[in-house]
Write a structure and sequence with these properties.
single chain, 475 residues, alpha+beta, two-stranded antiparallel sheet, 23 helices
């Protein structure tokens, strides 16, 4: 498609500024003049000029000069000035053109300075592009998130390496700023592998090496703010299956980084806290729906991701939040359903058999918490203390919400008395095992008979999912 006179004039003016002479190399003033040309264009004209520059190969020359930070470079503008320009350019381009610019910036170099420019452009897209264009940007960039574009800089005495793919980092910047249906569409555009790459990049892992006559050192830093924003984007969506898929990917990142190695130190407590903040917000946005999807989907059936999350939460002293999740699994997201009736609720499968989803989901969570407890505490006393803290919070939340309301009859009577009985039992001498302590906070018992107040079929589903997770989970 031919350019209009206005578009052609801008295209020619930019190209003339990017043509160095023998004694007249491209300088900062030339880059700023090219930026001014793009700033003066309307949305339609700027998009057309960028597309023509990409078609003729001139866009790469422009982005190379724009980001030139080499000691002998005459062009280039600082990162702050570039960010301001990107902020103005992003709302003028459609999704495909935004991705074209991001890819051109990515090709402009392989050092950490280049990584910063690509990230800055992603930030501009996330903050300023039209939402439909931001979603299309994610879709267009998805194939490049797994090409492992490296960012490595050396200097006297050491080097810096960014562990995440820079294109994936640009996508992370956009994902963390989308909400609702836009976020849902963007997540849907990413494969499992691509989502993992984006979450990995969102942690902004930077490895620093230093070398001196005395020896060398390696250190690692993370910043999980963007990871937390992506979890919040997921929490704003309405699909529990999507949320479970995101939680699965997040759990994999938490497990991989938390384990550490001699070369990649473990996550700092602060960054781990930010990760847990985001994952907790994600799961609490639809507790019953997300945990049910985790409990019955093949990819997460073993409970490793939830057990990893529980382990980290316990390590960070967040037993209260785990107890609140447990209470919602017993009484529904609004803490307003009778726990006995809810435990007994059945879903009829296509083969005509009943599956007790709520009982199984509660068992899955209970098993994950138990695996988290045993992963961090080897002695029974410590295990009991953690289990009791979680179970007591769950029962206390249920007691305060009183989901049985004004209802009468066996289910309401048992639920009411079970909560008080359970709290009293947990307050007494710790004679039970950690698993029994957790079960006190999960299974309604009839205090009058000391018997379970739920059917054998529902209890079997609860117990089976506990056993599965205890056997299979690898936190």
């Amino acid at each position: 498609m031919s350019l209009t006179p206005v578009q052609q004039q801008a295209y020619d003016a930019i190209n003339s500024r990017m043509e160095p002479g023998f004694l007249n190399p491209v300088g900062n003033d030339d880059v700023r003049a090219a930026i001014a040309e793009l700033d003066g264009l309307s949305r339609a004209d700027a998009d057309a000029v960028i597309d023509e520059m990409a078609r003729t190969g001139r866009l790469d020359r422009f982005t190379s000069e724009l980001t030139d930070q080499s000691p002998l470079g005459f062009g280039g503008v600082g990162l702050g000035e570039a960010q301001d320009f990107f902020n103005r350019l992003a709302p003028k381009l459609d999704g495909a053109s935004l991705a074209t610019v991001a890819q051109s910036l990515s090709r402009a170099g392989s050092d950490v300075s280049n990584y910063d420019y690509v990230q800055a452009f992603g930030t501009a897209v996330g903050n300023n592009a039209r939402r439909a264009d931001a979603v299309e940007f994610v879709r267009q960039m998805a194939p490049f998130t797994t090409d492992r574009s490296s960012s490595f800089s050396t200097y006297i005495g050491g080097s810096t390496t960014m562990s995440g793919d820079k294109d994936a980092m640009a996508v992370a910047e956009v994902l963390g700023r989308l909400r609702g249906a836009n976020a849902e569409a963007a997540f849907a555009a990413l494969s499992t592998e691509q989502l993992q790459a984006v979450l990995g990049a969102s942690l902004e892992g930077a490895m620093f090496t230093s070398v001196s006559p005395a020896g060398g050192t390696v250190s690692m830093s993370y910043d999980a703010n963007e990871f937390r924003d992506i979890m919040r984007a997921g929490a704003s969506t309405s699909d529990p299956e999507l949320k479970a898929r995101l939680f699965d990917a997040a759990g994999d990142q938490l497990r991989a980084i938390g384990q550490g190695s001699p070369f990649v130190p473990t996550l700092s407590r602060e960054s781990e806290g930010w990760m847990l903040d985001g994952m907790t917000e994600l799961i609490r946005s639809d507790t019953t729906g997300v945990v049910r999807e985790l409990a019955y989907n093949r990819a997460t059936y073993d409970g490793s991701d939830l057990a990893t999350y529980a382990k980290a939460m316990l390590n960070n002293g967040r037993t209260e939040a785990l107890g609140e999740i447990m209470a919602e699994l017993s009484t529904g997201n609004g803490n307003n359903q009778n726990p006995v009736d809810r435990f007994e609720a059945a879903t009829t499968l296509p083969n005509g058999r009943d599956r007790y989803d709520n009982a199984g989901t509660l068992g899955y969570f209970t098993g994950a918490v138990y695996r988290g407890i045993t992963a961090i505490a080897s002695d029974t006393e410590s295990q009991n203390a953690l289990a009791t803290a979680v179970a007591k919070t769950a029962l206390t939340v249920i007691d305060k919400s009183k989901p049985w309301g004004a209802a009468v009859g066996y289910a309401a009577s048992v639920a009411k008395e079970w909560v008080q009985f359970g709290i009293a039992a947990l307050n007494g001498p710790p004679g039970a095992s950690p698993a029994q302590q957790l079960e006190l906070g999960a299974i309604p018992f009839d205090p009058n008979t000391d018997e379970r107040a739920v059917s054998s079929a529902a209890y079997a589903e609860f117990n089976a999912r506990i056993s599965d997770v205890q056997r299979l989970a690898r936190p």
